[in-house]
Amino acid sequence: MSEIRVDISDAIAQLPVAEYQEKINEIHARLHSGQNGYTGWVEYPTTVEGNLVWQIMTTAWKIQKQCTAFVVIGVGGSYLGAKACLELLQSPFYNEFFAKERNLPKIYFAGHHLSSVYYHELFHRLRNEEVAVCVISRSGATLEPMIVFEMFKKFMNEKYGDAARERIYVITGSKGKLREEANQKGYTTFDVPDDIVGRFSVLTPVGLLPIAVAGIDLEAVLQGARQAQAACMDTDLNTNDCYRYALTRHLLKEQQDKRMEVFEVYDGKLRYFTEWLKQLFGESECQHGQGLFPVSMQMSTDLHSLGQFLQDGRQDFFETAVVIEDVTYDIMLPEGITDHAKTLHQMNNMVRESVKEAHLENNTPNIVITLPEISSYSFGKMVYFFEKACAVSCMLSGLDPFVQPGVERYKEKLLGFLKDDTVQSAEVE
Questions:
Q1: Is the pLDDT of residue 283 over 60?
Q2: 5-34+222-401 placed in CATH 3.40.50.170
């Protein structure tokens, strides 16, 4: 199968390989040394135990048999990777299929916000379904998913009584209240590795269990990740596209004063993949007043809302187009639309090329990352490629990509509000 290709020719005149090669070698060695406590993801595709993969697959088969609706509760890294995979590999109308067409549970996501209307409608939708629930939280203390999990426990207990515990699955860290509760209640559990932070956890049980429940080939996903891991072992900046991309975005920030990276996709199947990219880069890189603000756009939709900004607005950004080379299905356009016979995919590529040319006239740097095809194998490659690129890019700026001090401050403030509210409520009573 073909590789992920990175074209930086429209972003930077010449990559200063000689100047940065030693630094890249050093960063690579640090990532693979295991000295940082959160680099377990670096070699995870090749070190994950086959027994664990088998346990995930057998649990997924159990879930598929016991329910018609599977609810995944999580926020950020606890759900975005799985959601991205399902959006890429499933039909966009998956949940609308009749059961005999789908032959697998419908999959719903929860815990990523606190919209009362959403949960009212979701519980209403689930009333006539056979339901299984998976809650995912590395810390076991993130407020949004924990609140939603409490609501779902009530729903499941009312629906199934004591049997509810057979339909609740927990993916969490080795310590914390959620782990203690899971052990006490006898829920089926999987570990979030202690040395992998949430946004780098797609290829662990965090992402693999929901992906397996959706019927996606786990071994193919992991094989793709292994291939990407192997490809990144050669640190030569002349040939390693992952590291070339990492260095290019770093130089655009440092030398051209770019402050935003606009991730553009021209296929709706990649929409949630860019949501995961926003979290991966935004949470890892944006520290101490540094970092590129990640933005995602789906074309052609956003061309007709933000296209004017891209063309004539403040030029403090560069564009990274993530494109699919070979689509699963294509459609021949009716005669008369173009002078020569073309397919819809070819027309989509023409839109992309016209956008790039127009923006290059305005001296907006453009990077093109080409994915070979839509497949489980490609998804695994994509995840590892961007994880590695993100880590290297952050470390080029002297940042630790595995901490998120800003997020932790928000959590502290929220807990403070809750404590104050508890005190006030007690006083009223």
A1: yes
A2: no
